[in-house]
Amino acid sequence: MTAALALGGLGLVVALLLSIARAVLASKERGSEGAVVDAVDALLPQSQCAQCGYPGCRPYAQAVSAGERLDLCRPGGPNTVAKLQALLGREREPAAVAQTPELVARIIERQCVGCARCIEVCPVDAIAGAPNYLHAVLAEHCTGCELCVPACPVDCIELVAWTPK
Amino acid sequence: MDAQVADFAPLDESADADAIIARIDAAGIVGMGGGRYPSARKLREARAADVRFAIGNGMASEPGASADTTLLGQHFEAVVAGLEIVGRCLNGAGLALAVPPGSKLPAPAIEVGVPFAGDEQRLAAHFATRTAPNAGQPSDYGVAVFNVATLFAIFEAVTLGRALRRRIVSVGETDQWLAIGTPLAELPIAAAGELRVNGPLTGRPARANAVVEASTFSVGPARAPADPCIRCGWCAPACPESLVAEHLHDAFEANAEAAAVFDCIECGACTAVCPSGIDLVNEFRALKEQTRHRAALRERADAARARSDARSERLARQARQRQAQRAARLSSNHSW
């Protein structure tokens, strides 16, 4: 009787401890997953261009931490791939991405009709203007993501080389 | 060379500092020791910083670059006169002409025994007997440094009224007066192969279609191809800034960044001792550029992330507001 109670009690206590440990570890795991996404996101160029197939840099960072390919970021180029590989310990994965020049958009003012469609698609609010008024790209905020180019009905947006200020 | 006509009316002793500096500006004079910094601007900045000590730099510390030494031999008085003109611009600054040991030149020439002191920052630090902060300029020490060829050009512009049209250049083993703009390909030395401008240590490979510039003091053969780094460690004690050039070389090879490279004053001391013949100074120049560029990209990304997050938040807020307005409309319009 005493032996059964003692063993049963011990079993209960251990079961309780194990369940607490599991809950704590699981929450830690969730927390560190967010930390990985943050670390990946910090290495991405934040152009929000969606050329990787995800709707922005943060979604791609989440996909990468869940195992997505590392070489989908075109604006980041080989340097970003190398940093992601080093961060995640995935150096052995094949990666093919070319170096692309850093760009900013510029509106050709003679052609702009003031339709405001580019303003809506800009992911960083870098185009100033209002319907029926001339628009202008705020070069210091533009990431060169090219999302405004297909939105323009008169093809008046060009991309020029970005230079650090 | 004395046949050159005057471009300006000569200025006499009564000319004030502003007139002299305007003349130096008009004559197109820039730092002729390789720096290419506009001399008029340097003088204006030195005046604004109340610099009271001017040094003529005749150290000629690049191997094979004897143009400055030859210039001092040919036109010592003119160079000293140029230094005195600089002194007049700087409220009667103290003057010294730094020359290598064994030059045997009269005052104000002072023989400086520090190796690689042709570097402007090193020379200024030597005279100020203290060290400057990271990437400090000579004006931080209260000193202005002018190359002797610049001083000669200043003398010619102010006293003889001549614009800067030609300079003395070490070409191979000889020193010649060449017109600025002379294509390097026209020099006989170009037939021997690739060229290097401004010395084997701190110079650069000659670009395609390079010409003699105001800052070109030497033209010589290109460096031999470098061997791999053998980890001898000689570069570390050679560095006056206590940098370990080997580590910076690794960072360059790995296409990485290195914040410490901004302490490099590009004096060439490490290149001089490297037994593998690695062109370290030019690697560090590229590394500085790369490190700056990467930092600028990170700054751009951080700003873009903040703006993108702010936009997402705004769009979500607007969607919520529309939803609430719609719900309000639906609940208030139930009368019909």
Task: Explain the overall architecture.
The complex is a heterodimer of chains A (165) and B (336). The termini of chain A are far apart. Chain A is mostly helical. Chain A is 44% helix and 8% strand. In chain A, the strands form two sheets. Chain A has a two-stranded antiparallel sheet with strand order 1-4. Chain A has a two-stranded antiparallel ribbon with strand order 2-3. Chain A has two domains: 87 residues, Electron transport complex subunit B, putative Fe-S cluster (3-methyladenine DNA Glycosylase II, Chain A, domain 3, Orthogonal Bundle); 59 residues, Alpha-Beta Plaits. Chain A is elongated. The radius of gyration of chain B is 27 Å and the shape is globular. Chain B is built from nine helices and nine strands. In chain B, the strands form two sheets. A five-stranded mixed beta sheet of chain B has the order 6-5-9-7-8, covered by helices on one side. Chain B has 336 residues and is an alpha/beta fold. The relative contact order of chain B is 0.12. Classes of the chains: A mainly alpha (165), B alpha/beta (336). At the A-B interface, loops of A face helix 9 of B.
**Overall CATH class of the largest domain in chain B:** Alpha Beta
Return the CATH architecture of the largest domain in chain B: 3-Layer(aba) Sandwich
**Tally of individual domains of chain A:** 2
What amount of the residues of chain B lies in strands?
5-15%
The average pLDDT of chain B is 89
What is the mean predicted local confidence, pLDDT of chain A?
A: 90
Rg value of chain A: 25 Å
Silhouette of chain A? elongated
Shape of chain B: globular
Computed over alpha carbons, the radius of gyration of chain B is 27 Å
